[in-house]
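#struct-pred
JK: can someone run the complex with zinc ion? inputs below
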Amino acid sequence: MMPFKIHCIDVQNQLQNYIWLLEHTPSKQVVAIDPTEASLVTKYCTEHNLALSQIWLTHWHKDHIGGVLELIESTNIPVYGPQAESSKIPFLTHALQHEDRVNFHDLDIEIISVPGHTLGHIVYFIDALDVLFSGDTLFAMGCGRVFEGTHEQMFHSLNRLAALPPRTQVYCTHEYTLSNAKFALHVEPDNLAIQERYTHVERLRLLGQCTLPSTIELELETNPFLRANDVEAFTHLRTLKDNF
Ligand SMILES: [Zn+2]
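RT: done, structure tokens with the ligand placed:
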């Protein structure tokens, strides 16, 4: 057993953000990924006797970086994030590029560049744990909107993630799975895996439960955006979803 554990903080905001905490259990130190609100992280760490020791950011959007300034006010913990967005995230202490490496205790984390949602968007892949923190690029049964990049860039970024080991667990930032499932069923009504997952996700959400993490394997079966064969098909799907 690896001495790491992942915690979920449900921000309960309109955008349905989750803040993921990666804990090194022997030391009780944690990394906060995309901390929307400082107070939620501080409160959670106090209640669970955890010590915040790093912050990882996937991209510059406010709901991902909103809590950082307050969290680093009284400490000098490192803040990792995309170099390409460092002008928009001035408090980065470690600016990261594609294939850079980050360490957390004895874990080796690989940075993958995935432009599309924003131009500098990065994700954090931990091979030893089979874990991916995918930000707003790959969602459960969906993908992020293409705000800054081109559809071609987003298509290639998603393909990069689709090529990770199938067992990789996908921790994305938002609880959008049910609305994504409705769209997936709309475009692939005969896909049994999508039908099954839709029912499962609907039940979880009725109980107020989190639908994450997903896996790359499950996404390959049920995520229309990963199932698109070419840029044209992807662009068509993304445009449909934007107006769904
Ligand atoms: Zn975003």
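RT: quick notes.
Residues 192-206 form the longest helix (15 residues).
The radius of gyration is 17 Å.
JK: thanks, will look after standup
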